[in-house]
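Notebook entry, structure prediction.
Reason for the run: the old model in the group folder had no record of what sequence produced it. Starting over properly, with the input documented here first.
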Amino acid sequence: MTTTSSAIHRAAVIGAGAWGTTLARHLAENALTVKLWAYETEVVEAINTNKENSLFLPGVSLPASLTATSSFTDALYDADLLLLAVPSHAMRSVINNMIPILSETLPIVVATKGIEENTLKLMTQVLNELLPSNWAHGITVLTGPSFAAEVCQSKPTTVLLAGQDSTLTTQLQSVFMTPVFRVYTGSDLIGAQLGGALKNVMGIAAGVVDGLNLGANARAALITRGLAEVIRLGVALGADVHTFYGLSGLGDLVLTCTGSLSRNYSVGFKLGQGESLDKILKDTITVAEGIRTTRAALSLATQLHVEMPIVQSIHALLFEGQSARQAVEDLMSRSAKKETYRSPTESPTSEK
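New structure, fully documented this time:
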């Protein structure tokens, strides 16, 4: 495994959606040579010919040190760093396809925000299942409030890089850090991933609130109670409660629930305005991770006996034929509760 940040010169970025392309661009502008793997041949051609991902990141020029490929062998050749930015539902198949090529261990940065729907595993858990055990300490997670468009515009962005090996996270911190892209390090892989995944569900809910024109009061309540649900499930899964008050929890939640650049918020907004999910999905080429995460989150909550009424309502809206307005009415008409502070040692399963 690479042990010094000065030795990281070549990065393989797997996944050429808006976020994967943005991170590949960021690394290339930070003096790395980057190979970006794309599933779509037209994306590879556009990047290599015109230096632009016209399908997923139109209007953003890409540096000469960034080239695209549809070959895992080509992408991984001589790489010092592997960054994964594929959709959560594709992570397992992508890793399985790469395994024959992965010989020596590499630091891995997971930039995917989601939960595997069938197994209910986080992305690092999928990697740990598929890769040899000696890869585990090199697996990190990059997450936090970060719209791709704003990163490409060099607007100030602050993220979290979490991993088990503090030496490695510190080294990778310097690889990603720039004057406008600030990176904090942490060690709570579970909390970092859950915050990034569950905020997408809450982003759909916030979009519904705004699509129904329910006002700022309702959106603020949604964010607050949404955070409570994220914390309950996170602690039940062994996360550090304090992680959810940081960038990967509250930070990402606020961004996704208030920003029209969020794909998940946009899905919720259209649902709130009366569009069907089928039509919304038919009209977009991008992935809104919160749709699949809603199913996974509700399954986890049911397994662990954790109350998540917002997640349950969004599930009813997405998959059970409930109207957006009825979903909101059901939430507002729940039995009266007492708001109390839940300490890190308290059982996470009781509704607060």
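Summary: The first strand starts at residue 10 and ends at 14.
The old model has been moved to the deprecated folder.
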